[in-house]
Amino acid sequence: MTFTTRFAPSPTGPLHLGHAFSALLAHDMARDAGGTFLLRIDDLDQSRARPEWEQQIYDDLTWLGITWDAPPRRQSNHFADYAATLTQLRARGLTFECQCTRRDIEAAANAPQEGAPLFGPDGRLYPGTCRHLGLSADAATCTRLDMTKAAEVTASFTETGPTHSGLHTLTKEDLRATIGDVVLSRRNMAASYHLSVVLDDVACGVTHVIRGEDLFEATRIHVLLQTLLGIPTPEYHHHTLIRDEAGKRLAKRDDARAIAKYRAEGATPADVRSMVGL
Ligand code: GLU
Question: Which of UniProt's keywords are assigned here (predicted)?
Answer without folding.
Answer: Aminoacyl-tRNA synthetase, ATP-binding, Ligase, Metal-binding, Nucleotide-binding, Protein biosynthesis, Zinc
